[in-house]
Amino acid sequence: MEHKAPPSPSFTNKELEVSEILLQLPSLILQSKFDRHTFKATWGCTKPRYTSLSEPGIDKTSRTESETPVSCLPIVVVAHKKPKNLKRKRGELFEIINQFSKRIESFKKEIANVKSHNETLKSFNSKLKERKQELMSSCMSPLGIPDLNVPLDHVKSFQSQAFDLNDTLDEDCEIVESALGFDLNETLNDDDCVVVEPAQVVDLEC
């Protein structure tokens, strides 16, 4: 323990108190830091039985007034803006409904037109397929292979002019089975010669 020197009569009481506080200042600082890092757990403590359970009522109004005076409260000024008029007139709403209904009707008409056009395209496509099958069947060779070198017009004309070799000839035409009655070395007279024109029928009996 340090022995303090007796106070000199030149110092006052206040000066002595200040000096004592300055001497105890380091220990006070350490104690405040230690108290700051320690936690007080009150849930494990028990109260003595003789203490009364009911505590006297505390006036909350006086406590709040003493702790937070009105002068220290911050004043917040809120600028109230007028709300926009979001209500619309009934006429405007009816106009919007009419516009949407017209759009729906126009969309329905467009859908119907697209469907009808699709049906026409399908029918035209089926006709083209049938025509293709007909042309392929008409251009087939006897072996079943189409002849690509023959034009289509020539094939049609040939089919229209085709004839059967087994058909009987007309009565005016006779087939000569042998050439015994003809002498190729014999000279013919002018009377025996007949000029054949393209459209004239030759009578073999004369």
Question: What report would you give on this structure?
Answer:
By secondary structure, the protein is mainly α. Among the domains are: 7-37, no CATH class; 105-144. The chain is 44% helix and 0% strand. It contains 4 helices and no strands. It has helices at 13-37, 60-67, 90-138, 152-160. The protein is elongated. Keywords: Coiled coil. Residues 97-134 form a coiled coil.
Summarize the structure.
The protein is mostly helical and 206 residues long. It has helices at residues 13-37, 60-67, 90-138, 152-160.
Helices, strands, pairings?
Elements: H1 13-37, H2 60-67, H3 90-138, H4 152-160
Helix content: 40-55%
Radius of gyration: 66 Å
Structural class: mainly alpha
Distance between the termini: 181 Å
Question: What amount of the residues lies in strands?
Answer: under 5%
What is the element string, with H for helices and E for strands? Answer: HHHH
Q: Please, how many helices?
A: 4
Q: Characterize the overall form.
A: elongated
Provide the low-confidence segments as ranges: 161-180
Report the average pLDDT across residues.
67
DSSP strand count: 0
Largest sheet: none
Assembly state (oligomeric): single chain
Coiled coil: 97-134
Keywords: Coiled coil
Q: Which key phrases capture this entry?
A:
single chain; 206 residues; mainly alpha; coiled coil
